[in-house]
Specification:
With 518 residues, this protein is mostly helical. It contains 21 helices and 2 strands. The protein has a two-stranded antiparallel sheet. The longest helix is centred in the last third of the chain and has 32 residues. The chain is globular, with a radius of gyration of 22 Å.
């Protein structure tokens, strides 16, 4: 199985599917929906084959299923793919959320004059770009798809979004990400020049470590700012509330559930192995940014009046925990950060979809337009409460073990222990309880808004389709809440290999293996 081009297929199938769906005429919307869903289902099957054939043992090669194909011979550039345990979790999250997001948006475009085939083609193109960033083992190839994913998300927000500021949100998202990408491009070129024209990630990792100093510091900054904007970390976060608030629910679930994780994934894949000294040098600053982000975003979330913007701010707080876990440089915290990336995608993806169900029924995302909705929407209200409790890391849900490991590892951080930092971050848990419970109380409990009784849609509980798409997320959140070991087993070897660049000897890394096709 390792000799099959499965990683190339993971990128190619959704791209081909996007082209096929885009070629379907607008009046054949139903055919476009089913073709897109079939393509995303095939991608999920291929990802399952990768997961089954993946070697989870500690002494396995860092990158597995590696492939390399000649791209630009004059510059010795190859289309190189490879997957480690961290990337595998992100791939599984992507291929799991994409068809669910499609089902969530199945009928949302029926009442608007927008092309259904174009919408589902954009979703598939976005899936392909996200998968390519997780699988790329060539720095330039990663950069290409890192930027390419901006295009489908820009049109999903600007053309299919909601609210009077959707165009503003789309442009702001694009410009912020483009600025970070341009800084990264400068750093990529400088890295290429400094390493004798090498873009291959494995070659760069195996080479003599770059000397500590000004050049490594600037290269780290160029990469990190691009990743911090994508994540988003405080203070690079301001595009997310606008984009998350304006994007259609399905696109918002993919934006916050998967796309933002590319920033934190890339810090683990590129910043730490390629710039270990600079990573340690700037770690105290990043930890400070992360803790500020946890507290700031939680306080701002409490004051939000828009459901989608509130969920977006909760994600900024969660990314503060992920940043703290990465830069604490302990095994517990790093594994917790990786699990947080995966589990946050499940919980926030579910929360955004439930919010989408509400806003489609009510025609508004304003919290004040609800009140007492649980009386006629008991199942939807129950799923909403479950998603909110998972988002605040209630014990028994998957995000809890992630947050627990991050805080546990932060107490024993590299810099002689980060007890004050961990204590401050823990306050974010209390604030999370406040904004989640208050959000639920204002929308689902209390005196019923009489306007809701005049709206037939607000008396229609979850449909069979909606139950079918939320059920896998609910089950996954519960299963990984009580049994997170499979996630830990997948992530731990890659995490240990990454931390060797901070606290050990990179010479101890396992050798890579795979097939090369020139």
């Amino acid at each position: 199985m390792n000799e099959l081009p499965l990683l190339s297929a993971l990128v190619a199938v959704p791209l081909i599917g996007a082209v096929a769906v885009a070629s379907i005429r607008r009046e054949h919307a139903e055919a476009a929906r089913w073709t897109a869903l079939a393509a995303s289902g095939l991608v999920a099957v291929i990802a399952a084959l990768v997961a089954i054939g993946f070697d989870y043992s500690p002494d396995a090669p860092w990158l597995q299923f590696t492939e390399s194909y000649a791209w630009v011979g004059a510059w010795d550039l190859n289309l190189s793919w490879g997957v480690d345990g961290i990337a595998l979790l992100m791939v599984l999250l992507t291929v799991g959320l994409t068809p669910i997001a499609m089902l969530a948006a199945w009928r949302d475009l029926d009442s608007v004059k927008r092309s259904v085939p174009a919408f589902f083609a954009l979703i598939l193109a976005l899936e392909a770009a996200m998968l390519a960033t997780f699988l790329a083992s060539n720095v330039l190839l990663f950069y290409f798809f890192f930027e390419a994913m901006l295009v489908p998300m820009y049109f999903l927000i600007g053309s299919y979004g909601t609210g009077p500021k959707k165009q503003y949100a789309a442009v702001k998202f694009f410009l912020y990400s483009l600025l970070g990408g341009l800084l990264m491009l400068v750093a990529v070129i400088a890295l290429w020049v400094n390493n004798g024209g090498v873009f291959d990630w494995q070659t760069l990792v195996d080479a003599e470590p770059m000397a500590a100093g000004t050049l490594q510091d600037w290269l780290f900054i160029g990469f990190f700012i691009a990743f911090a904007i994508k994540a988003p970390f405080f203070p690079f976060h301001t595009w997310l509330p606008d984009a998350g608030g304006a994007a259609p629910a399905a696109a918002a679930a993919l934006l916050v559930g998967v796309m933002d994780k590319i920033g934190t994934f890339a810090i683990l894949r590129y910043c730490i192995p390629l710039f270990p000294d600079a990573t340690q040098k700037f770690a105290p600053w990043v930890i400070a940014m992360s803790v500020i982000g946890v507290l700031y975003a939680a306080f701002v979330a409490i004051g939000q009046t828009d459901l989608k913007r509130l969920v977006a701010y909760t994600s900024i707080a969660h990314f503060g925990f992920i940043g703290l876990g990465i830069f604490a440089f302990t095994q517990e915290a790093a594994i917790g950060a990786v699990l947080y990336m995966f589990n946050h995608g499940l919980a926030t993806g579910l929360l955004f979809m439930v919010v989408g169900f509400l806003t489609i029924r009510r025609g508004s995302a304003q919290i004040a337009d609800y009140g007492g909705a649980a009386k006629t929407l008991p199942i939807l209200a129950g799923v909403f409460l479950f998603a909110g409790l998972a988002s605040l890391s209630l014990p028994g849900t998957a995000p809890f073990i992630s947050e627990f490991l991050v805080l546990l590892g932060a107490f024993n951080g590299t810099f002689g222990g980060n007890e004050p930092v961990a204590v401050l971050a823990t306050l974010g848990i209390i604030l999370a309880a406040a904004y989640v419970i208050w959000m639920y109380q204002r929308t689902m409990q209390g005196t019923r808004n009489p306007v809701l009784d005049e709206m037939p849609a607000m008396r229609r509980d979850l449909t069979v389709r909606e139950k079918a798409l939320v059920a896998p997320l609910v089950v996954a959140i519960l299963v990984f809440g009580f049994f997170p070991q499979p996630l830990i087993d997948a992530a731990q070897p890659a995490v240990d290999n990454t931390l060797l660049f901070i606290s050990g000897s990179p010479e101890d890394l396992p050798a890579a293996e795979g097939v090369t096709n020139e």
